[in-house]
Give the backbone structure.
Amino acid sequence: MFKRVGMAGLFILVTLASASGHTCASKSADGKHSLVYHNRKYRFCFDLPEDWRGYSVIVGTWSGTAFNRDREHGEPVGGPLITLRHPLWNKDDWRQDIPILILTHAQGEIWNDIVVSAAPYGPVPIGRNAKYVFSLFPRFDESLATGADEVQELFRHHPLHAY
């Protein structure tokens, strides 16, 4: 009897996990599992290369200004910021960070009217789920930091998976 209850419970858990669209397990190009950052609070996962093993997560906030259509009046906006940092980053050799801005859907609808940097356009959306829009700072990877090319290549493979 316990075996049947255990198998039924496992079946229910697998069914619920697949129904939620939670697909965080990924494979690298060589078919091996890659390193995956899971954020259950905001419901997304992010695939990282194996050489990021030991990465750190910095939790902070982003801030900017949302302008109306005439660009004359702006209102402060902001939200959570999750930064993934390479394990070899140090104050003498900055490595390229991966900053993930968490926007509400209302902010996501006006993303191009939000100024968060000196760039002439707003945060760049990279994914969304039922509650949040995930974005990057404009031009975040156009730096001279070590690993900027690696991060650009990483984004060609759509590493963020929202659920």
In short: Confidence is low (pLDDT under 50) at residues 1-21. The beta strands are 35-39, 44-48, 56-67, 74-85, 98-104, 114-115, 124-128, 132-136, 160-162. The two ends are 35 Å apart (CA to CA).
